[in-house]
Specification:
This protein is α/β, with parallel strands linked by helices and 352 residues long. It is built from 13 helices and eleven strands.
Length: 352
């Protein structure tokens, strides 16, 4: 894989929506939260108001817990909902399986069962063959199904697909966890409120992300059954995910969720991905490999293009064997970014 060299890169590119900056309204909210002293550990105005806003969006019984990052949200969500002898079924591309350095296994002691994905998704018939060994003491006990929305491949589950997975999980006394690192992009694609494809579809726990969509840091664990949430605050503290100056996370979420800033940002990122895929559709050497449904574009390109392209607009190679790359758009990706990148791709195309 070509590695990023900051001395030869303009710093703009399509590597990740984590590479983007922080939205000015969110920065302004943090500055406001900084003006005076406030009670720590989430008892401040900003955090409490953000929790109230989450409950307005997801339902009044929603328990909301702020954490530092997405890995913390995922690990704590699944640790809370399962036992140390449990297993969690996920797609082989899932962030918990590929990009969290074995955190779930190391910290929670939970076995991951990763299954081949279909454009990033899992379906009931993928999972059913692995639902066995219940009550058998030599077998890890299936405790949860974990899906990502939107998926790591940039696709989006429909409410009906999620509902079927939830029904399957609940039929076997399991829970359905949703990794929502890019949940805003999914909502923008579906044109639905958050709860229409979470609570209303039977999802039990959500790792709600904002960092990839204009926030600086901080995620939220949303648990929809208060009984399931019992003791979570102690688990959060033990796991070193309790932030003392919580108001700086609460203020971000409050700004993010107010006046649909989250939706504005997500719609823009998605639109830039659509602009990109449309603009490259007539370049013969580029083949789109996955339906573009959110803010990511996956494509195969000639291998010899990758390094020189990355010197201008950095991105990651997704699958080196087939020369598949990932181009991620962000809330602050501009039309000029897309136009300039596509112009460069066309230059490469003409050289062959």
């Amino acid at each position: 894989m070509f590695m990023y060299n900051p001395s030869t890169n303009s710093m703009r590119g399509f590597a990740s929506d984590n590479s983007s900056g922080v939205h000015p309204r969110i920065l302004a909210a943090m500055i406001e939260a900084n003006e005076n002293h406030a009670i720590g550990y989430g008892e401040d105005y900003f955090s409490q108001k953000a929790i109230e806003t989450f409950r307005n969006l997801f339902g009044s019984s929603t328990e909301v817990f702020f954490v530092f990052n997405g890995t913390g949200a995922n690990v704590l969500s699944l640790m809370q909902a399962t036992k140390s002898y449990s297993s969690v079924i996920c797609a082989d591309t899932a962030h918990i399986n590929v990009d969290e350095c074995g955190a779930l296994e190391r910290i929670a002691g939970i076995k991951l069962i990763s299954l081949p994905n279909r454009n990033g998704k899992l379906f009931c018939d993928d999972i059913v063959p692995h639902l066995h060994g219940f009550g058998f003491e030599h077998h890890s006990q299936p405790g949860a199904i974990s899906i990502t929305q939107s998926t790591e491949m940039g696709t989006v589950y429909t409410p009906d697909e999620i509902r079927k997975l939830a029904d399957l999980a609940h039929k076997h006394n399991m829970i359905l966890h949703l990794d929502g690192a890019r949940i805003a992009n999914a909502a923008a694609t579906l044109n639905l409120p958050f709860r229409a494809f979470t609570v209303d579809c039977g999802v039990d726990v959500v790792s709600f992300g904002g960092t990839k969509n204009g926030m600086m840091m901080g995620e939220a664990v949303l648990i929809f059954d208060p009984k399931l949430a019992e003791g979570f605050k102690y688990r959060r503290k033990q796991s070193m995910q309790l932030y003392s100056k919580m108001r700086f996370v609460g203020a971000q979420f409050l700004a993010y969720l107010t006046d649909d800033l989250w939706l504005e940002n997500a719609k823009h990122a998605n639109a830039m991905a659509q602009k990109l895929v449309k603009a490259i559709s007539d370049i013969p050497q580029i083949k789109i490999t996955v339906p573009v449904e959110a803010n990511g574009v996956f494509a195969t390109i000639p291998k010899e293009w990758i390094e020189p392209l990355c010197e201008k607009y950095f991105f990651y190679t997704w699958n080196e064997d087939i020369s598949e790359v990932r181009w991620m758009c962000s809330f602050d990706t501009t039309e000029q970014d897309i136009d300039s990148f596509v112009e460069l791709l066309r230059e490469f195309s003409k050289r062959q």
